Amino acid sequence: MPPWEGDRTLEDAPRRQRRVPLVEPLADGGALAVDEALSALAHPTRRCALYYLKDEGVADLEELGAAVAGMKTGTPPDDVPADERDRMAAELAHTHLPKLDEALFIEYDRRSQTVRYADPPAMHNMFLLLLSQFEGKDAW
């Protein structure tokens, strides 16, 4: 029998012997929210889009495509060739923005092709800030 069972409390047990979960359960499907947020942040193109939107607040799809293509190639957005900007805008629209919208990072209006940083939950901002530190992006 472990020494903390019986008359002793959990606080009496040595820390290394406690069985404490690594992650506390989150209310209202929070564990799913963590998985969804981390999955959305897993792709570098999505992170580039979020870094841009975090700074700018809102952008149209063409502007965001140019900005992300520029970040990925180290080129100023105005110098990104039109075909590369259009390819990135299409990739964002069909692949990356829906995932970020579903994970509550952004609001994406397909009709107007406008993307807005959505003031996501604090946990999402924390993950993004942590990643920005590792990737050398300016902290906000």
Structure notes:
With 140 residues, the protein is mainly alpha-helical. The protein has a single domain, classed as Arc Repressor Mutant, subunit A (Orthogonal Bundle). 51% of the residues lie in helices and 8% in strands. The protein contains 5 helices and 3 strands; from the N terminus they run ααβααββα. It has a 3-stranded antiparallel beta sheet. Strand 2 and strand 3 form a beta hairpin. The longest helix is centred in the middle third of the chain and has 21 residues. The radius of gyration is 21 Å and the shape is globular. It starts with 29 loop residues before the first helix and ends in a 6-residue tail after the last helix.
Write the layout of secondary structure elements.
Blueprint: H1 30-41, H2 44-56, E1 58-60, H3 61-73, H4 82-102, E2 106-109, E3 114-117, H5 122-134
Antiparallel strand pairs: 1-3, 2-3
Features:
140 residues, mainly alpha, Arc Repressor Mutant, subunit A, three-stranded antiparallel beta sheet, 8% strand
Q: TL;DR of this structure?
A:
This protein is mainly alpha-helical and 140 residues long. The protein has a single domain (30-134), classed as Arc Repressor Mutant, subunit A.
